[in-house]
Amino acid sequence: MMKIICSAILTLMALSLHAQVTKKVVAQDGSGDYTTVQAALDAVPLHNSQPVLIYVKKGTYHEKVHVDSTKDFITMIGEDEMNTIITWEDHAGGRTPAGDTITTFSSWTFIVKANDFRAEHLTFQNTAGVKAGQAVALSVKGDRIAFIHCRMIAFQDTLLAGATPGRQYYRNCYIEGSTDFIFGAATALFYKCTIHSNRNSFITAANTPESQQLGYVFRDCRITADTSVTKVFLGRPWRPYSSVTYINCFLGNHILPAGWDNWGKTTNEQTARYAEYNSYGPGANPAARVPWSKQLSKQEAKKYTTAFIYGDWKLKP
């Protein structure tokens, strides 16, 4: 708890150096300014240009939450990521209250369309269940987005690290799912995260554009699974130029020796950009990987700095 309070204070101090900060508190018991997360976000003005800090007290917030594309510069900090939970249960093929059909891309529990959004110590969850099919917990479509000490939990399609051009950063996060549970076209760095499979399937399904230098980079992560899970691929290409790289990652014994799947299209083997460097653990098996993936040299791996990944975006601590 003390670490989280210190994190909020440091974030507030950093924001205060640049502009006047608007502060809002969300608490289910009525002790804050708002009782729902969406109400606090709705109170942020359209075309916002000033830092906003939203502090969310512990609780399970059963709501479908969106951050409007004109509401930039929002930081949202939960009291405790294990007990500050935003949850919903939409899934592809379901129906909205108005009777419209829900798609994968509208099944999210929480969506960020704005730029310069940061979240800390929160859980984003979709509880539609394993039989529901695609059910997104978190959809991220903006640029310069950061999630620190957050949890994303669902089954198929947990995290849509989406639209391009969009740069995203995930640090010390826990991401759990089954099929293609990290997918989309963004440039995203996952640093010191735990990536956890709860079913036999595929971790990533990047659809990186051909013109984009990088897709997903996992650095110093732990790739884990439920004990019943024994057959998982590191990724498969949603689109031909899918780009995914694992650097210095622990791979559990659920990772198949081949490592990567071509999604049933041999032509993808000519275009997909899949690489590893210094993978370790029982699932690290460079000699058995598919021949169309790459094992990076030490010099090649050194190039994967934040500047190389993000360009002119300077990450804040």
TrEMBL record:
Keywords: Aspartyl esterase, Hydrolase, Signal. The lineage of its organism: Bacteria, Pseudomonadati, Bacteroidota, Chitinophagia, Chitinophagales. This is Pectinesterase. Residues 1-19 form the signal peptide. GO terms for cellular component: cell outer membrane. GO terms for biological process: cell wall modification; pectin catabolic process. Residues 25-310 form the Pectinesterase catalytic domain. It catalyses: [(1->4)-alpha-D-galacturonosyl methyl ester](n) + n H2O = [(1->4)-alpha-D-galacturonosyl](n) + n methanol + n H(+). Pathway: Glycan metabolism; pectin degradation; 2-dehydro-3-deoxy-D-gluconate from pectin: step 1/5. One of its GO terms (molecular function) is pectinesterase activity. Its EC number is 3.1.1.11. The active site is at residue 180. It comes from the Bacteria. Gene3D superfamilies: Single-stranded right-handed beta-helix, Pectin lyase-like. PROSITE patterns: PECTINESTERASE_2. Belongs to the pectinesterase family.
